[in-house]
Amino acid sequence: SMPTDMIEHITPLDGKTFVVDRFHEAPQHYLKVVSTHAPNKKEVFYQMTHTDRVRKLSKTGGDSAPQARFSYDFSPMSVVLVASNRKWYEFLTSLFAILGGTYTIVELTSGAVDTVGSAVKEALGKAS
User: Fold this and answer.
1) Which stretches within the chain are classed as H helix?
2) Among 45, 44, 51, 50, which Cα is nearest to 10's?
3) Residues 23-67 pLDDT 10s
């Protein structure tokens, strides 16, 4: 089935209201659209991300009637959902890799701090 966070991106504007505070302002919406293929589904779904802003209109000129604008950007890329399971030993290997990398970084940092500390102490000892 479809993940719940994906369902939220299919209809990002549902239930939302956009109200402007002053005259001569209009909401402007930017929607990025990506096609999504789900497993065992024949239909193609479209996920959207939404950003908005309030556009200020000039008080004189041709665009004096406020109107909402919608700009769509269709992505040439497509998302393909694939369900996969990880074996327990793959998880364990990844966990040990992360722990080993963390240990190495801590040891290298500790060695560097000790080296710098002894160099500073030596320099201060010679200076006085």
Assistant:
1) 4-10, 88-127
2) 45
3) 888 889 999 999 988 877 788 888 899 999 988 887 776 656 778
